[in-house]
Amino acid sequence: MNDVTLLDARGITKRFAGITALDNVSLTVDAGEAVGLIGPNGAGKTTFFNCLLGMLKPDSGRVHFDGTNITRHPVHTRARLGFGRTFQRIELFGGMTVREHLLVAERARLGTGRLWKDCLNLSRPTEDELGRAQATLTLLGLDDVGDKRIEALSLGRARLVELGRALMTEPKLLLLDEPSSGLDQHETQEVVQMLQEVQRERGTAILLVEHDIGMVQAFAKRLYVLDFGTLIAQGPTADVMKDGAVQHAYLGEHGTTHAEDTESTNAAVTTSGAEATAAGAPGRPLLEMKDVDAAYGPFRALFGVSFSLPEKSVTALLSGNGAGKTTIARVITGLVPVTDGEVIFDGATITGMPPWDIALRGVVHAPEGRSVFSSLTVEENLTLDFRRNLGRHAVAGGLERAFELFPRLGERRTQLAGTLSGGEQRMLALARVLVRPPRLLIVDELSLGLAPIVVDEVYATLEKVRQTGTTLLIIEQYVGHALRIADSVVLLKHGEVVYDGSVAELGDVSERLLAIQGTEAHR
Predict the structure, then answer these.
(1) Cβ neighbours of residue 430 under 8 Å, at least 6 residues apart?
(2) 3 state DSSP class of 410
(3) At what angle do helices 155-168 and 127-139 cross, to 10 degrees?
(4) pLDDT tens for residues 376-432?
(5) What digits encode the pLDDT tens for the residues 325-349?
(6) CA–CA distance from 122 to each of 1, 125, 133, 159, 452 (Å)?
(7) Is 293 helix (H, G, I), strand (E, B) or coil?
(8) What phi, psi does 174 have (nearest 5°)?
(9) Read out DSSP for 437-485?
(10) Average pLDDT in the 480-492 region?
């Protein structure tokens, strides 16, 4: 590692309407170094990124990059100097192919005049530019989707496109904001290997914000930890992870890494299976999918999918990315039409029924990502939902319950939802659903964007929801968490069901999933 300091941020402080998001935070990154920045949801990680990039102006402090004071430099100037980044929330161009995304970044790197000529159809990419784009596609394992539109990709592969776009600008420092969010374990390991190769070949320094502690430990040599906008620990990664303050604030008393979560999966199977047996036989089917096909335009996503969800049960729907899990959730809720087969809920067909009618029957889908009104406050978002679903006189009780489930939301009740951290927005979206448990709750990537300690808290809440009689369908990348409360499992491969049965009879979960993820990743 080169010990020449590339980034030197000192005393960064940022406030929003009286709330101190960052309080005198200092951080350095040497040339070619890999540094991690972690912390609970709302700790200030993304705000710090935005201050480094000039997207936010700090109230105090300074930023030096490659020997130059850039504290007052605009965003585009910092990008020219060698900053690159990916976003916590996917920021890609609809209607464009994967290759076009990379070429736009390449043309921008070479000068804005080229982009204007492209818009006027006065020039075309050179052979050298096309070659660099192809090399990046190969590096990221995206050769097979190079000419597909971005809408056709899974969340995990879309994140790789965003990483590739950043790499095309040849940054000296790459800021990665939760790059593993939405990726399965196999894909996360591939990303780590890709980033290590980028460092070796190009000498790129990387500052990583990530909730996947396994990825952080595998990649970052040094680590900084934020909590409530304050730096609480820094140093070699192994030492920081043992710090008591870090364990309490971020991981919780029983925090585990992604790798540890995977290692505990088989133990979770045994425990869950025993609990399911003790609970007795499953109830009658609440939901049935019978030979269901579904497609996005000409592209088929589901092939003869059949399984049922017993009433008051918990089912984990698992697979690699792009296998059809989210499509199943959308088919059940009427967001994606069935091209063949039938969906039955509570003994009656709901095939072809509009989403609002399905919702009125008691089917609720908490989708991956965030579904909040950014221009409304936290309390206004919840009130809008609770007035409709709970009734005007029950709003106060609903708010009390929501803030009990997620105390951080209570602290932010008057803050605009659009200014919350990504994890806090996810909490807000979940609070709207969990306060009034439905008959069937479909949770898509529950842990997406949440710190480990918050994931534990949310799963504890799901246990309580289950006790009210709600049937749960859980789509989750952290397999161990899902299997610890699941009665049954449905495994998907290429849009087809390859296992549908009890958790206890599943066998070696890790081996099965790795096999599925490996084949999905190389489709």
Answers:
(1) 366, 406, 446, 458
(2) helix
(3) 140
(4) 999 999 999 888 888 888 899 999 988 988 888 998 899 998 888 777 888 888 888
(5) 889 999 999 999 999 999 999 999 9
(6) 44, 11, 20, 31, 51
(7) strand
(8) -110, 120
(9) --SEEEEESTTTT--HHHHHHHHHHHHHHHHTT-EEEEE-S-HHHHHHH
(10) 87
